[in-house]
Specification:
The complex is a heterodimer of chains A (446) and B (170). Chain A is mostly beta strands and 446 residues long. Chain A is built from two helices and 36 strands. Chain A has a single domain, classed as Methylamine Dehydrogenase, Chain H. Helices cover 8% and strands 43% of the residues of chain A. Chain B is built from eight helices and no strands. The longest helix of chain B is centred in the last third of the chain and has 29 residues. Classes of the chains: A mainly beta (446), B mainly alpha (170). At the A-B interface, helix 1 and helix 2 of A face helix 1, helix 2, helix 3, helix 4 and helix 5 of B.
Chain lengths: 446, 170
């Protein structure tokens, strides 16, 4: 076969590849964008969730509880405080500000305390409080409520955005003005520093990393660390993870983009680790062509997980030993388990657990294509991220016990787990695509 | 420099989906994988729309995202040692060569690196020139040329080997 024949064969081969009708794919993309836009609206008012997100995967020795199915979706409405008792009482027929008790039963060690018309929530550092924003009853603004960990209303918060500083203090932003607040008092102390549109990442110990893109070069970031005592100088990079004790943070340094128009995607870059508050560089993760999706410290702070789409695959870097450890070329976006094992959602609902010490792998089928955990790695939720029809399976695991939950509709966003694993907020998207479409917020406590 | 609103970004992504699907199908040679890749690329582009809205050519920017997504998918498939044959896409009636040649080509392409597979698909599926391939994949023209040359050598060798086996059998 001549060179020309070879090239002709290759060309013919590719021309024989005729995709099926693309209109369905087009419709799916359009739908997905619409969903993202709705999610963006529902997330308005939250700053980035604090703390490194670890993963727990107590896949072995788990006791499967009887699955429960959540109650029927309620009409969207603003609700007020809710009762803490985990009873089966029906929703009261009082005004819209009246508490609506959970319609769920208690299963295993998890109790559903709140079923509300909520759009999202963010936990305080110790899981004792949470800020929840509700679906607006009128106008574009969402309402933000401060609740205790059992779902009882502490007070409404007049704010567009919130970021927790620690167990009790938080920063609120309203119309561009930032204030320091506390769960113990209604009083707010104005903050002179303007947070503007910075990406924020709290260490849950009083410091907040502010990452700001360069307006002239969207690929270039600078960051500062804010505390009540002041703000550090601007340094190059974007803070992407804090250690759970708040003493170290990881910084992403993207390379200049090379794509069309000088704008690229999945740009490569490198990662360094700095100590806080000294701002001394403590590590430089190997690789200058990383395509990092997620970066997370393990609960002990010794290891840094880089979920990487680049050639090296995902890997674990030992910050003490200064070397890559564990299984080679982990595929997928991995997360931490409390005992320094890795959890990696695989394909077809399978979840893999990698043991760092032995490099062995255990696989469990049918529990989700996504997983998320508490920062301390003690609690984990596995779920299917893109299914918005019927009853959506979600698995909660903590301390060796497991609860299988049937969530109505689909998950509007990833479950929000308190840093210590004591509570989970789930926002469901119900009746997707119908006139009755709405979100429902569930609060489960362990 | 264009600055697109969210609505305009969404419109570009939806309008470009059909072409992106063809592109993904050539690279991945599997309808299901191509659908997933386009969906993933569109969502990634939407999430990164603050970059896309400033691109000189947003449609070309999205194509680059699609190519990158497909390349990553090829890497994942390669690590799993599972690359499905493109039977769902191949129209045997339009294919002028023998079934054996097609099988040989499929297997030979599967043995290429993900980067080489992308370049072969862009060159012979999309009919792009070397400069166009370099622009779309973000690599230097020389790199694109050498990768294409290397890939072709591999394919020629594979086809020649299969032909020798056939001749011996006959």
């Amino acid at each position: 076969m001549s060179d020309d024949d070879t090239e002709r064969s290759i060309r013919d081969y590719y021309r024989s590849i005729t995709p099926t009708d693309a209109s369905r794919v087009q419709a799916e993309v359009q739908n997905s964008i619409e969903i993202r836009r709705r999610k963006a609206v529902s997330r308005r008012g939250v700053w980035q969730l604090g703390g490194a997100v670890g993963i727990a995967a107590l896949l072995a020795l788990a006791v499967l509880s009887a699955p429960i199915v959540l109650g029927p979706a309620a009409t969207p409405r603003l609700i007020g405080p809710v009762a803490s008792a985990p009873t089966m009482s029906p929703a009261p027929t009082a005004s819209s500000a009246t508490p609506r008790q959970s319609s769920l039963t208690m299963r295993g060690s998890w109790i559903t305390l709140l079923s509300a018309s909520g759009a999202g929530a963010v936990w305080s550092a110790d899981g004792a409080y949470l800020a929840m924003w509700t679906v607006p009853t009128s106008g574009p603004s969402e309402d933000m409520l401060l609740l205790d960990g059992n779902g009882n209303l502490v007070r409404p918060l007049d704010a567009d955005k919130i970021v927790w500083l620690n167990a009790k203090q938080f920063i609120l932003q309203k119309a561009g003005v930032a204030s320091l607040g506390s769960v113990d008092t209604d009083a707010l102390t104005p903050i002179s520093y303007s947070f503007a549109s910075a990406e924020t990442l709290t260490n849950d110990h009083g410091a907040v990393a502010l990452s700001v893109p360069d307006p002239n070069s969207p690929d270039t970031f600078h960051f500062m660390i804010w505390t009540a005592e002041g703000v550090t100088k601007a340094l190059e990079g974007e803070v992407v993870a804090w250690s759970t004790d708040g003493t170290e943070f990881a910084i992403w340094h993207p390379k200049p983009a090379t794509g069309p128009g000088g704008v690229g995607f999945q740009d490569t870059g490198s990662i360094t680790v700095m100590a806080w508050p000294s701002l001394e560089q403590v590590a430089s993760v190997p690789g200058t062509d990383l395509v990092a999706q997620e970066t997370a410290f393990d609960p002990s702070g010794r290891y840094l997980l880089v979920s990487n789409l680049g050639d090296a695959g995902s890997f674990v870097y030992d910050l003490q030993g200064r070397k890559v450890v564990g299984p080679e070329k982990i595929i997928g976006v991995a997360s931490w388990q409390s005992n320094d094992n890795l959890l990696v959602p695989g394909t077809n609902g399978a979840v893999n657990t990698y043991r760092l010490d032995t490099s062995t792998i255990a696989t469990e089928d049918g529990i989700g294509d996504s997983a998320i955990s508490s920062a301390d790695g003690s609690a984990i939720a596995t779920y299917f991220s893109e299914d918005y029809s019927g009853i959506h399976p979600l698995t909660l695991i903590r301390n060796g016990t497991r609860l299988s939950v049937g969530v109505p509709g689909g998950l509007e966003e990833a479950p929000v787990i308190a840093a210590n694993g004591s509570g989970v907020v789930i926002v469901c998207l119900i009746d997707y695509g119908k006139a009755t479409e709405h979100t429902e917020l569930l609060l489960l406590k362990n | 420099m264009a600055t697109l609103t969210d609505d305009e970004v969404a419109q570009v992504l939806v309008v470009q989906t059909a072409d992106a699907y063809r592109l993904a199908a050539w690279i991945l040679r599997d309808a299901g994988c191509a659908e997933d890749a386009v969906q993933e690329a569109a969502m990634a582009a939407w999430d990164a729309r603050n970059k896309m809205r400033y691109a000189d050519d947003p449609a070309a920017w999205f194509k680059k995202v699609v190519v990158n997504t497909c390349r990553d998918e090829l890497r994942r498939l390669g690590r799993r040692q599972r690359i499905p044959l493109p039977r769902t896409l191949v129209d045997a009636g339009r294919f002028e060569r023998s079934f054996c040649v097609r099988e040989e080509l499929e297997q030979a392409i599967e043995r290429l690196t993900s980067e080489e597979q992308v370049i072969i698909a862009l060159r012979y599926g999309r009919d792009l020139t070397i400069p166009q391939i370099a622009l779309l994949t973000g690599i230097a023209q020389g790199t694109a040329k050498s990768r294409l040359h290397h890939a072709l050598e591999h394919l020629r060798a594979a086809l020649a080997a299969e032909r020798r086996i056939e001749e011996r059998v006959q």
